[in-house]
Amino acid sequence: MIELRDITKIYQIGEERVHALDHANLHVRPHEFVSIIGPSGSGKSTLMNIIGCLDVADAGEYLLDGTPIEDYTENQLAEIRNRKIGFVFQSFNLIPKLTAEENVELPLIYQKVKKSERQQRTAEALERVGLSNRAKHLPTELSGGQQQRVAVARALVTKPSLILADEPTGNLDSKTSREILQLFQELHAQGNTIVLITHDNDIARQAKRIVHILDGRLTELTEVTPE
Amino acid sequence: MTSLRMALRSIGANKLRAVLTMLGIIIGVIALVVLVSMVDSATSSITAEVTALGNSQVNVYVFEDKGRAVKLKDLQKWVDNEPCIAAASPGVEYNTTGKHGVKNAPFIVYGVTQDVYKIQSMQLMQGRFLAASDLENSSRVCVVPEKTAKDLIGYTDCLGEEISLDGLHFRIVGILKDEQESMASLMAGNRKIAYIPYTSMMRLTKENGAGIRNFYIGAAEGYSLKDAEDRMNELLQEHFKTDNSSYDNYYISSENYIEEAMGRISGFLNILLGGIAAISLIVGGIGIMNIMLVTVTERTREIGIRKAIGASRRTILVQFLIEAVVLCMLGCALGIFASWGLLQIASAITASASISFHLQGKVVFLSVLFCFMIGVIFGLYPANKAAKMKPIDALHYGG
Q1: Are A219 and A25 in contact (CB under 8 A)?
Q2: Do residues B122 and B267 both lie within one domain?
Q3: Long-range contacts of B123-128 (CB under 8 A, 24+ apart)
Q4: Burial code of B298-313, b = ≥16 C-beta within 10 A, e = fewer?
Q5: Nearest CA to CA, how far is B1 from chain A (Å)?
Q6: What's the CA dihedral at B165, B169, B175, B181 to 10 degrees?
Q7: Do A95 and B312 touch (CB under 8 A)?
Q8: Do residues B123 and B231 both lie within one domain?
Q9: B245 confidence band (pLDDT: 50, 70, 90)
Q10: Residue B4 sits at the chain A interface (C-beta within 8 Å)
Q11: ipTM computed for the complex
Q12: What angle separates helix A74-84 from helix B313-349, to the nearest 10 degrees?
């Protein structure tokens, strides 16, 4: 599924070279639910960008579904993001002038899926997150929890290999957070592969497997159920 | 379709800004469409009035008659048989000196038939024009323009006075209004002008029996000068028993000085005004580019989101390009609509002057094409800027 081998990413900040990732190794198997936990500045955003194909590593090898991705062009990376990865961000990142429905539909438009199929799959995804009755609403007309559900629906609609969540509950109150995490649990139970990035131990414990990141290095903390 | 809807929605999200941005294009289009349409309409109105007065003729010069001289009866036959030829007259010129009493002046004398009056749309001030009987009898009569009468005789009311040409006396039977023979007077320069019967001219120049070397024909109503010219060409080929390949024994041309001059003037004006309008359209285009750059910066985050969920560079480029083009085309449509309104108003105002202004299809087409090009050209840079954004930078822009 995901195979990171000696991934290194270096940022030049002024005179100083910062190792955001220092020979990071990670293996995520299909249908796994993995939490990556680390304090801010530990390199977890960089890791998320690389796993999410938003950025490429300076050194090392990254295999996604068995395909090495470091040599891809920007357009090929866009297509990989489109087909294989579903993003859920801390700040929801919905497009404000599109309705819930249209936001969910967007990745399918980029896949050039036929309109009838798009509508059907969009409806299914919204149904899945329990927001069918809110389909025609704009993001500003939805609560934070509802917006994040729309974002999850958008991540789901393409049936991606991997759902990548970056602090998905960071902007939510604890009750809504629990609902969102419950949703992730359900998605995992249905066979989705999920990588959840957080700085919060309680949230990280939702996953069966927790990986710790500090100063760009990854360490396995627990492996509850070896597969 | 989807991208068009998205573009319209993005534009609609900020209507005031969109309208202000489009204003440049709107004004540019109005400038182009209204000015060019006005010049065209005014020109065609004036040209129509002028051509209604005539002054358009086909000239034929015979260099070599191949033993088949063109005679008066040939001209008469063509006028009678050909529906497109309304009139024909020889146009033989003869330079001599004219005398009246003790005064004399250089003259250009035209040997013509009564038909020339119609062909060259002459207008009489006094008396009569040459008549068929004058030609039959080779009468020594002449018709002179007002200016000639004034200059040589000293006053215009001079019917019955005689002018001596090469010692032969010609009685003045008609005076022509000056302005109606301006083309002839242009050719005459300082010389005085007199029209005499063609037959009398033959006697004057002692060329009795020779063929007509130069004649004019006028097109009948409902036929263009070109029709008459083409038919005349066929008739002459028949007459001389030549075909198109041996085109060297005569020369045929149609003269429509005024139309040509008007065409040149309006063409020049159109280029001038079109140029001014093009400049204002380009200024409008710069406005579009400016606002698109602002839009791209404002929507950096949206671009980041779109890229994260799989929009390629091309998709983003096309999205913003369509937005710029749609903005331009909307401006163009509004501009054309406003132009139509303005032209209606202008027509209403000038209705009494019998000039009506119409929206010219070709200018509308031209402005649509031009606006589209401006949209593409000035939209390309901002769209490319959007397309080149890195997804991570764009996502984290402004928090």
Answers
A1: no
A2: no
A3: B123/B176, B123/B177, B123/B180, B124/B174, B124/B175, B124/B176, B124/B177, B125/B156, B125/B175, B125/B176, B125/B177, B126/B156, B126/B157, B126/B159, B126/B174, B126/B175, B127/B159, B127/B172, B127/B173, B127/B174, B127/B175, B128/B173, B128/B174
A4: ebbbbbbbbbbbbbbb
A5: 11
A6: -20
A7: no
A8: yes
A9: low
A10: no
A11: 0.91
A12: 100
- Mean of per-residue pLDDT scores for chain B: 84
A142 three-class SS? coil
Specify whether B234 is located in the same domain as B87. yes
- Of all residues in chain A, the one with the smallest CA distance to B394 is A54
Distance CA B210, CA B198 (A): 12
Q: How many angstroms from the chain centroid is the CA of residue B316?
A: 48
Report CB contact under 8 Å: A83, B312: no
Domain boundary among B233, B256, B279: B256
Tell me the backbone φ, ψ of residue B208, rounded to 5 degrees. Answer: -50, 130
* CB proximity B392 to A under 8 Å: yes
Do residue B113 and residue B238 come from a single domain? Answer: yes
Same domain, B251 and B267: no
C-beta separation of A45 from A68 below 8 A? no
| DSSP output for A91-139 | T----TTS-HHHHHHHHHHHTT--HHHHHHHHHHHHHHTT-GGGTT--G
The answer to whether residues B119 and B37 belong to one domain is no
Confidence of residue B399 (pLDDT cuts 50, 70, 90): very low
B318 touching A (Cβ < 8 Å) = no
Statement to judge: residues B169 and B228 lie in one domain = yes
What digits encode the pLDDT tens for the residues B90-123? 888 888 888 888 888 898 899 999 888 888 878 8
| Domains annotated on chain A, with CATH | 2-223 (3.40.50.300)
Last residue of a domain, one of B189, B222, B256: B256
Domain that holds residue B352: 2-49+260-395
Q: Domain check: are B99 and B199 in the same one?
A: yes
- Read off the pLDDT of residues B257-312 as tens digits, 9 standing for 90 and up: 666 777 788 788 888 888 888 888 899 999 999 999 999 999 999 999 999 999 99
Per the CB < 8 A criterion, the answer to whether B70 and B250 are in contact is no
Q: Which residues of A fall below an 8 Å CB-CB distance to B? A: 49, 52, 54-55, 74-75, 78-79, 81-83, 87, 89, 91, 93-97, 106-107, 109-111, 154, 158
- Tell whether B2 lies on the interface with A, counting CB pairs under 8 A: yes
Q: Which range is least confidently modeled, A132-136, A141-145, B130-134, B349-353?
A: B349-353
B9–chain A Cβ distance below 8 A for any pair: yes
Strands (E), chain A: 2-13, 16-28, 33-37, 59-64, 67-68, 85-88, 162-166, 193-198, 209-214, 217-223
A172-187 in b/e form (b: 16+ CB < 10 A) is beeebbeebbebbeeb
